[in-house]
């Protein structure tokens, strides 16, 4: 099966790393490689849409044909050179999942949780509710929210993390089961593109589900050793040795290296 699509994470993967002189020129080579081999480009990122647009401008990223953003809660498509538009069928799929408790009602119910501050409007979405909180209290706050979700039988899951750049506590509420990997799988079914025709590139734990879903896979060399071991073991157990490429180069350059490995 010939590859048709490069699906890639952005931060730490496609986006050039600060201080890596090879990444910017390799980004240009990567864009040329995609055009030469008629490969579509799909971004798979936790960033919100405007943040992706900012990254495209800042780093000179190639324009994607498809975009999964907002931690898997938004899917967009570009047709015939037009601006990206939301894929309505995916929007409708997620709307059905939270019909019993829409985002606006969930937001009202969570006003009683002390220490939550809503993130900026552009970081919210019809299927994503995002907050800041004190990093020192994030575990306790996440536990309190989880207990409320269970009491309400709310169709949501919670993701909590700490921003490594400013130490903000981050809390996202998403429809249950929805993630970057879920959106990628739904997109593959929707477009009728088989797993063998998709090459996925990533670098971190939030890429793990997609890295071990059966696609051809690139793990860039700046990924943590523990993640590389975990992905390698999953592929070995599934007898997918030929589907995994662990790059010797970092970020952008590693993605290009992987492309050249799989597309000859």
Any overview of this molecule?
With about 260 residues, the protein is α/β, with parallel strands linked by helices. It has two domains: about 5-75 and about 180-260, Rossmann fold (3-Layer(aba) Sandwich), CATH 3.40.50; about 100-175, Hypothetical Protein Ta0175, Chain: A, domain 2. It is about 40% helix and about 20% strand. The protein has helices at about 10-15, 25-35, 50-60, 90-95, 105-110, 140-150, 180-190, 210, 225-235, 250-260; strands at about 5-10, 40-45, 65-70, 75, 85, 115-120, 130-135, 155-160, 170-175, 200, 215-220, 245. The strands form two sheets. Strands 5-4-3-2-1-10-11-12 form an eight-stranded mixed β-sheet, with helices on both faces. Helix 2 (about 25-35) runs parallel beside helix 10 (about 250-260). The radius of gyration is 19 Å and the shape is globular. The protein starts with a strand and ends with a helix. The mean pLDDT is about 95. Pfam families: S6PP. Keywords: Hydrolase. Its EC number is 3.1.3.79. InterPro entries: HAD-like_sf, HAD-SF_hydro_IIB, HAD_sf, SPP-like_dom, Sucrose_Phosphatase. One of its GO terms (molecular function) is phosphatase activity.
Task: Using brief descriptors, characterize the structure shown.
SPP-like_dom; alpha/beta; phosphatase activity; 4-stranded antiparallel beta sheet; 8-stranded mixed beta sheet; EC 3.1.3.79; 10 helices; 39% helix; Hypothetical Protein Ta0175, Chain: A, domain 2; globular; HAD-like_sf; single chain; 264 residues
């Amino acid at each position: 099966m010939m590859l048709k699509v490069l699906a890639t994470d952005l931060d730490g993967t496609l986006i050039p790393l600060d201080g890596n002189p090879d990444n910017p020129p390799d980004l240009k080579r990567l864009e040329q490689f995609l055009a030469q081999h008629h490969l579509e480009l799909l971004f798979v990122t936790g960033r919100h849409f405007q943040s992706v647009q900012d990254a495209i401008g800042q780093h000179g990223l190639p324009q994607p044909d498809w975009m999964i953003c907002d931690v898997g809660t938004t899917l967009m498509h570009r047709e015939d050179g037009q601006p990206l538009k939301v894929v309505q069928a995916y929007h409708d799929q997620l709307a059905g999942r939270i019909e019993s408790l829409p985002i606006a009602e969930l937001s009202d119910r969570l006003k009683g949780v002390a220490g939550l501050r809503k993130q900026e409007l552009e970081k919210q979405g019809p299927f994503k509710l995002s907050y800041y909180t004190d990093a020192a209290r994030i575990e306790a706050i996440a536990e309190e929210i989880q207990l409320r979700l269970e009491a309400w039988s709310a169709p949501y899951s919670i993701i909590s993390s700490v921003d490594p750049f400013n130490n903000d506590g981050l809390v996202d509420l998403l429809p249950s089961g929805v993630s970057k990997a879920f959106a990628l799988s739904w997109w593959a079914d929707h477009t009728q593109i088989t797993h063998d025709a998709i090459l996925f590139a990533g670098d971190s734990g939030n890429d793990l589900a997609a890295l071990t879903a059966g696609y051809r896979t690139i793990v860039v060399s700046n990924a943590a050793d523990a993640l590389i071991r975990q992905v390698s073991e999953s592929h070995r157990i599934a007898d997918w040795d030929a589907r995994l490429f662990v790059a010797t180069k970092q970020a952008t350059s590693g993605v290009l290296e992987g492309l050249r490995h799989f597309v000859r």
